[in-house]
Amino acid sequence: MATIVATDTRAGGVITVTETTLDGSSDTFTYDSGLDLVLVLRNPTGGAISPVIDGDGGTTVQATGAGPVDISGGLAVGSIATGATVVLPLRSWSAYMQGSIDITSGTGLVAVLLEGCLKSAPMGPNSVI
Q1: What pTM was estimated for this model as a whole?
Q2: Which of 29, 43, 51, 113 could lock onto 6 through a cystine, CB 3.0 to 4.6 A?
Q3: Sign of CA pseudo-dihedral 95, 56, 4, 46
């Protein structure tokens, strides 16, 4: 079981992140909507990986113009190619981040969970998120 631990980025400066290699057997993290969490998934393996992020509390949400939408199967991130990295600002997917959160089908991915990086760091002309 791999637990993805958040790295607090609010202090600024150079920050060493905590990387977690997903093992496929209950890879978990804790979501806090007040922390502006960003999940980074990097694929160092020899093949594409298609992970799913699934909070066990997510069931059905009301979507304007569409009615109830079933989210119980989790958020399919899509295929992450060999050598590729994807960034997911989790507040964009908050409906899926309910209860205990697992990443399935992600064996071999390297995960970094960043806390507070979207709103607290001063941004300049050369800033990169």
Answers
A1: 0.85
A2: 113
A3: negative
Q: Residue 108: exposed, middle, or buried by beta-carbon count in 10 A (0-12, 13-18, 19+)?
A: middle
CA distances from 97 to 13, 30, 90, 111 (A): 29, 9, 8, 16
* Dihedral sign, Cα of residue 76, residue 104, residue 118, residue 92: positive
Please give the Cα distance from 35 to 86 (Å, whole number).
19
- Residue 122, classed as helix, strand or coil, is coil
- One-letter-per-residue 3-state SS of 61-110: EEECCCEEEECCCCEECCCECCCCEEEEEHHHHHHHCCCCEEEECCCCCE
Dig out the tokens for 50 from the structure: 């298609």
Determine contact, residues 28/1, Cβ cutoff 8 Å.
Answer: yes
**Tens of pLDDT along the chain (129 residues)?**
689 999 999 887 899 999 999 998 779 999 998 888 999 999 999 999 999 999 988 789 888 999 999 999 999 999 999 999 999 999 999 999 998 899 999 999 999 999 987 654 444 444 444
Three-state DSSP state, 33: helix
